[in-house]
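User: Here's a chain of 337 residues. Predict its fold as tokens.
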Amino acid sequence: MNAFDEKNNPTIEVIPWLFHEQQFVDSVLNSEEKIDVIIPLLHSNQLWIQNLKSYYREIPIGKLLIGDAGAIDGSIESLKDFPRVQIFDHKGVSTLGKSIALLIEQVESPLFVYLQSDVALPPGWLKLMKRDLSNFDWIGSPMHLCVLADYRNDFREHRPLAGAQLGRTSAFHGVSKEMDDDYIYRQEDFVFANYVQKNGFKVGNSAHTYHLHQLMRRKTKGEENNIQSIDIRVESSPLERARVDESQMKGMLKYTSPSYGLARKEVMSLVRITLNRDPKLILSYLDFARNNAPDWVVIIKRSVYRGILSILRSKIKSAIPLLRTSQIHVLVKSIFS
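Assistant: Prediction complete.
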């Protein structure tokens, strides 16, 4: 059984599979093993029922342990149709980590699975994960992102809108004689808009409707849409961003060690981000580290030093706002004086 094909893509067609109506299969009925599953739950999504079915199909679930953090989207109510569910009231628990820790304490099976509610498990997941039990005691499976979010992509200031267009046939009179079979491919929106304007007609965009443009994997003789990454930027308030940044940094400092290489890299990255967003926060992070995690102090200082050198190098190419530059100067004096 393989989860990936020769091009390292999933062997299933992911998007159709996610939305295909699945029959409920309770795999514990055909298994001598029982594995408890924990899910901290604040919210789910429209695929929650499908996701749950994939858990029961792939894992012989002994108990499904849910930490209800105050879900208001119907996620908890949906669980009434599934067997062996235990729901714990975590509305008074402030953080995800504490909820997970409390759920782990309820586990009774030798092995357990931690899942997030917006995850689906592909065929053979548990069997393939078990292949690594001889090498590891805590095993992660790589994330294969399914971006199921719609958003406006209005690029009218940069190029004509394409994908679903309406036009007067008369505006394209003689078009095939003008267009050779050579180079027109993904710039056809420019080419045809230019052709219409050249013939004395007008080009514009509708403000009354839209079209749904789909980016999906496909089998084709041309480009296969082997997507490498998608950059999604979520709008959030400065206050919320500051809260998340502070929680992320302090959680890393308090609960991880610099000896764990991935944690060290993450903290160094967070320092660089903080230098660009609000350098003054570095001093509060240093105080926090001195009081709670002194091993991190030298790492933070080293990261600040490297970050400032990087900023000073980039300053030559792009100006840094005067205020932020002065903040960094104060920060340097505070840390290294």
